[in-house]
Every structure is written in C-alpha cells, then in structure tokens.
Amino acid sequence: MLPNVLEVARRFIRERVGLGETVVDATMGNGNDTLFLAELIGQHGKVIAYDIQQEAAEKTRARLEREGVAERVDIRIVSHEEMNQVPDTVGAIMFNLGYLPGGNKEVTTQAASTIRAIEAGLGLLKSGGVMTIIVYWGHDAGKIEKDAVEEYCVNLDQTEYLALKYQYVNQQNQAPFLLVIEKRSK
C-alpha cells in the first residue's frame, strides 16, 4: 500500500536529520511529531515546538514526560511565526496545518501567519535540510490557507529550494496533501 502523507513526511526527515541536531515542530498539536522528532535527534539534540494553544502544550508535555524525552524539547506557546528568533540552523521543520485534533475547530492555522512562519523557517534550514507541510484543507480557513501555501511554494526560487507536492488525486473530501521543501546545497 502506498504510504500516507505523514509517513512520507517522516521518511524525508529521517533521511536528513541526525543525532544531536536541532529541529522544529511548527504545529505541536497533540505532540505526535514532537515525540517523533525528540526520538530522532537523541539525547543531545533539541526540538523546538510551537503552538498557540495551552491545551496542546499540556498534552504534548505530558506525552513527552511519559516517554522520557521531555528534556529534549523546548515548548513555546506562541505562534510559529516566532521561529525567526531561533538562533541556530535546523535540520528539519514539520508543519501540520489545520486545527488541533480533538480541540476547538474554530482555532486553526491561518494563511498569513503560516506564510510568515514558512519564510522564517526557510531562513533557519541548513543546506540539505527539509521542511514538511501537511495541508489539511477540509474546513473554511483551510481552503484559503491551502491556496496561499501552494502559491508560495510554487514561487520559491528553484536555485535555492526544491519543492515537492505529494497527493493522492482520486480521493474525496479534500484529502490532506504534503509539500516538502528542501534547501539546496550551495
């Protein structure tokens, strides 16, 4: 069976991130990607995880503590736009756009702030680093965000970045899709 978008995103990140690196979870949510990244980078790495919802931070912190990796993660309860304040280069950045699963569906990522976060993140990526963006667009704000993010990625300078779209084309109900941006080596 073909891999789903999350499996493909994680595959790209596994191929490029090593032990001890700094990585970013730009949309913490329930902590699934935060945990994946914390396990991937090992005890000497650092994950910086963003979400604007206290509920997301609490769920994620509890999960990381249960798994014994909480010390590897810097949880920030601010917009992912704030990643422009990260002083280091990073090996990977993961986005899952939309709303917190099981949370308030009225609180969603927004096109304008997501574009600013992507721009900030691209400035942090090391050469050869990747950004994965899973676009969930089956809600009103998601359709607007989808169009903005796709347009942004299509217009990236090909001499600096490679951009890929992974999508099942025969699915109903606005199936999520994956965008992957790789910072080209200079």
Strand order of the largest sheet: 3-2-1-4-5-7-6
- Tell me what portion of residues adopts beta-strand conformation: 15-25%
What is the share of helical residues? 25-40%
Shape type: globular
Q: Indicate the low-confidence ranges by residue numbers.
A: none
User: Biggest β-sheet: count, sense, barrel?
Assistant: 7 strands, mixed
What key phrases describe this protein's structure?
single chain; 186 residues; alpha/beta; 7-stranded mixed sheet; 5 helices; globular
What do these coordinates show?
This protein is of the alpha/beta class and 186 residues long. Helices cover 35% and strands 24% of the residues. The protein has a seven-stranded mixed beta sheet, sandwiched between helices. α2 packs across α3 and α4 packs parallel to α5. The longest helix is centred in the C-terminal third of the chain and has 15 residues. The chain is globular and about 40 Å long. The model has no long low-confidence stretch (mean pLDDT 94).
Summarize the helices and strands and which ones pair or pack.
Elements: H1 5-16, E1 22-25, H2 32-41, E2 46-50, H3 54-67, E3 73-76, E4 90-96, H4 111-124, E5 125-135, H5 140-154, E6 161-166, E7 177-183
Helix pairs in contact: 2-3, 4-5
Task: Summarize this structure briefly.
The protein is an alpha/beta fold. It has five helices and seven strands, in the order αβαβαββαβαββ. It has a seven-stranded mixed β-sheet, sandwiched between helices.
